[in-house]
Amino acid sequence: MEWLLETDYSLLLFVNSLHSPFLDWLMMTLSAPYPWIPLYIAIAGFIVYKYGYRGSNYKYAFSVIFAAILVFAITDMGSSAIKDYFMRPRPGHDPVLEGMLRLLDGKGGRFGFISSHASNVFGLATITTLLFRKRWYGISIFTWATAVSYSRIYLGRHFPSDVICGALFGIITGYVIFKFLQSIKSLKS
């Protein structure tokens, strides 16, 4: 267990030290929610096109959009509950790391295990990849989710284990909601 904690600290410090003005800007942009609104709108539009345009199946299209929103809600609320349960300090609040981190985006809330950003983006990536079944899309959206999650470590907001466990929580949530959506669709067929 001690080895895992030391590895977590070492990886955080290494990633946090890889800075340049361009990377600082890029990581801040990746972590911000507003630049991704067009992506979310495009995904919703593609869902309506794929499931509603070719026939009058708009109810299913909107249930798919609702499922994606549900994944976001569950990962967001679930990660907050996990943070409150484990109460692991974020790197910026960890006394061991005092003065060792570059905190471009502030310290953040007090607790960081698990990363809500990682949970949200990996949950969305999972459910939409399973729905769309397009290899190019899956590679693209998971690359985006990885970059967003990496930015959280770079900015000193999360330990690598916070991000990895957040990603796993998002993947599991996205998969479970996808399976639930499939079962509802098969009941109606």
Separate helix tally: 7
- What ranges have pLDDT less than 50 throughout 5 or more consecutive residues? none
Please give the CATH class of the domain at 70-188.
Mainly Alpha
* Helix and strand run: HHHHHHH
Strand content: under 5%
Corresponding CATH superfamily of the domain at 70-188: Phosphatidic acid phosphatase type 2/haloperoxidase
Written account of the structure:
The protein has 189 residues and is an all-alpha fold. The chain has a domain at 70-188: Phosphatidic acid phosphatase type 2/haloperoxidase (Vanadium-containing Chloroperoxidase, domain 1), CATH 1.20.144.10. It is 74% helix and 0% strand. The chain is built from 7 helices and no strands. The radius of gyration is 18 Å and the shape is elongated. The model has no long low-confidence stretch (mean pLDDT 92).
Q: How would you briefly describe this protein structure?
A:
By secondary structure, the chain is mostly helical. It has seven helices and no strands. 74% of the residues lie in helices and 0% in strands.
Reconstruct the topology from this structure.
Layout: H1 2-17, H2 21-31, H3 37-53, H4 58-86, H5 116-132, H6 135-154, H7 160-188
Helix pairs in contact: 2-6, 3-4, 4-5, 4-7, 5-6, 5-7, 6-7
Overview features:
elongated, 7 helices
